[in-house]
Amino acid sequence: MAHAPYEHITSTSNPTIKMMKGLDRKKVRNETGLFLAEGARLVVDALKFGWTPKYILVGQDTTERSEIKELLDKCALKGARILTTSPRILSAVSRKDNAQTVIAAFEQRSQELNTIDVEDKARFIALYEVRDPGNLGTIMRTADAAGVDGVILVNQCCDPFSVESVRATMGALFSTTLVSTDFETFNAWRLSNEINMIAASVNGTLRHDEANYASKSVILMGNEQSGIPEQAENACDVLVKIPMAGAADSLNLAQATAIMTYEVWKGAGYDGANL
Amino acid sequence: MAHAPYEHITSTSNPTIKMMKGLDRKKVRNETGLFLAEGARLVVDALKFGWTPKYILVGQDTTERSEIKELLDKCALKGARILTTSPRILSAVSRKDNAQTVIAAFEQRSQELNTIDVEDKARFIALYEVRDPGNLGTIMRTADAAGVDGVILVNQCCDPFSVESVRATMGALFSTTLVSTDFETFNAWRLSNEINMIAASVNGTLRHDEANYASKSVILMGNEQSGIPEQAENACDVLVKIPMAGAADSLNLAQATAIMTYEVWKGAGYDGANL
Q: CB–CB of B249 and A146 under 8 A?
C-alpha cells in the first residue's frame, strides 16, 4: 500500500494544532464538535467500533513502527488527516510532559433515546447530573464490561468527551451507547418501554441485592453531592439502599454504580457474559 | 477557652512551609514520616478516629469562623502547631489555585499483621502491588463503607499517604486498618488465622458470586497491568472471575474490588450494616 500523504507540522501556531490544543476546553469541543483521545490503542478500539478520527497527530519517529504505519494508513484511507510532529508539540496538545505519541481528534457522537433498541432484559445506567468526569468515564468502562445497553446522562451532566472522561473509559467510549436528555423525556421513554426504574438512594427501603432486576431495568444514580431530587425519586419503581457500615464517608459514585450494575446483571442471569 | 497560640507565617521560605510543600514527594514523606490531608472535614474525621495533626496550616481569615476556631483549639490542646497564613502560601503547599483553607500534616501510621484481631467472619482486602494512588484511596473508602477489617498492601505498592490517595479516601484513611507486608508473611498470617483467600483473576474458574465467603475471608486483587503472579494465585483457596461481556477493556481495579467486597460482605450476612 502506498504511503499515506502525511503533513508535517513544526509550530504550535499552526491552526489545527491550536484547535486540538483547545479541545481540553468545553467551549472549543462544543464549537468544533470534536474531542481528543490519546494513545494508539484507543484509535484501534475506535476503528473496531466504527469511529474514524478526523485528525491524528503523531510523533514523526513513531510513524516508522510498522503497526503504527498500518494504523495510520487505515485511518487515512477512511479520510483522517495525518499530521506528523515533534514530542514538544504532542506535549503542548496533551498538556503532559510525557505525551502519548498518537493523539487523535474524533467527532462527538451521541444517540437519541428513541433510536435505542430495547430488548428483553435490557439494562441501562442513568446518571442524574453526574459532575465528575473521572466518575463518568469509569462508569462507562464498567457499563461496557457488564454489557450494559446504554448510559443515559440526565439533565446537566459533566462532558463525556472531556479528556479526563475519555481517558477513564479506556476505550469504552467507543463501544457504549450514550444518550443525553432531560429527566421528563427519559422517564417518559422508560415508561413507554416498560423499563423498571430502580434508584440507589439513602432513602432506599429495600437492600440493593433484593430488588427484582429480571425484567428490563434502568438504575438511576444521583449526583455526587446531592444525590437524586425527591421528584425523581418519586418517579422510581423501587428505591434501594446499598448497605454501609462505614465510619467515614459513603461509597464513591462510580463504586456504588459498579455494585448496582453487577446486581442488575446478576438479576438478568449474566446473559452474554464471557465467563 | 483561651485562644491557642497561633504562629503567623508570611513566607514560603519558612522551613515548616518548605517541609509541608515537600510532602507531595515520597522521599520527603519517608524522611519526615508525615503526610498531608486537606480540608477541615478531614481533620474532624481524623480527630474522631484518634489522630491528631502535627501541623495545621490555616488561612488567617478562616480562623475567625467559630467552628474552625473550635477545631484548631482542640488540635492545639492535643499538641498540634497551628500556623496561620495567606491564600498564596496555602496554594503553594497544596499546589492548587483554589486551595482548601485548612491543610494538616499528620504522622503516618500503619499496623503490623500480628496486631490485627481476626474475629469470626472477618473480611480483608489484600492488594498485590497496586500502582495507582487514586485506586488505592478509592478502595480504602469502599473498605470503610463495607466495614472491612483491614486493607493489606502486599509487596511494593503505591504510597497510601500520597496526596492523591489521601484525597480519594475521603477520610477513610483515618478509620481503616492498614498493613504493608510481603506476600510470604501475608500468606503465612492468613493461613495461621484460617482466613479463606479468594483471588479475582482472569484465570478464575468459579463466578465471583458463587464462592463461599461465609467464613473469615481475604480477597486478593492484582496489579492494574499484570494482575496476580502465578505463584500467588497458586497459594489461593479459590480463584473467581467477575463476568465480563465488554468489548473494550476490563473493569478498573477499584471497580472490581468494590464488586468483590460487596459479594464477600453479602456472604458474611451484612453483619453490622447500617441499613
A: no
Q: Find all residues with CB under 8 Å of A191, minimum gap 6, and list them.
A: none
CA distance between the termini of chain A: 40
Whole-number Å distance between alpha carbons of B34 and B24: 10
Q: Which of residues 163-222 of B touch A (CB under 8 A)?
A: 168-172, 174-175, 207, 209
Encode pLDDT of B119-132 as tens digits: 999 999 999 999 99
Q: Which residue has better confidence, B30 or B271?
A: B30
C-alpha distances out from residue B33 to A11, B28, B115, B175, B178, Å: 46, 8, 21, 19, 15
The string of pLDDT tens digits covering residues B163-186 is 999 999 999 999 999 999 999 999
Q: Of the candidates B195, B205, B194, B198, which has an alpha carbon nearest to the alpha carbon of residue B238? A: B198
Q: Is A144 on the interface with B (CB under 8 A)?
A: yes
Among 3.20.20.120, 3.30.1330.30, 3.10.310.30, 1.20.1540.10, name the CATH number for the domain at B7-107. Answer: 3.30.1330.30
Domain extent listing, chain A:
7-107, 113-267
Note the CATH architecture for domain A113-267.
3-Layer(aba) Sandwich (3.40)
- Report the SS3 class of residue B106: strand
Q: What pLDDT, on a 0 to 100 scale, did the predictor assign at position A1?
A: 47
B chain contacts of residue A49, beta-carbon cutoff 8 Å: 247
What residues form DSSP beta bridges with B262? none
Say how far apart CA A181 and CA A153 lie, in whole Å.
6
Q: How far apart are the CA of A5 and the nearest CA of chain B, in angstroms?
A: 30
Which sign does the torsion angle of CA B242, B244, B249, B255 carry? negative
Q: Which of A45, A248, A258 sits opposite B248 (nearest CB)?
A: A45
Gap between the Cα atoms of A236 and B22, Å rounded: 49
**Residue B165, min C-alpha distance to chain A (Å):** 14
Q: Evaluate if residue B4 carries a pLDDT over 70.
A: no
B138/A246 Cβ within 8 A: no
Contacts of A141 (CB under 8 A, 6+ apart): A168, A169, A170, A172, B248, B249, B251, B252, B255
Q: How close, in Å, is residue B237 to chain A by CA atoms?
A: 19
pTM: 0.94
- On whether ipTM exceeds 0.90, the answer is yes
Given an 8 Å threshold on Cβ–Cβ distance, is A252 in contact with B138? yes
Beta-carbon separation of B170 and A144 below 8 A:
no
Give me the residues of A, 226-265, that contact B with CB < 8 A: 241-252, 254-256, 258-259, 262, 265
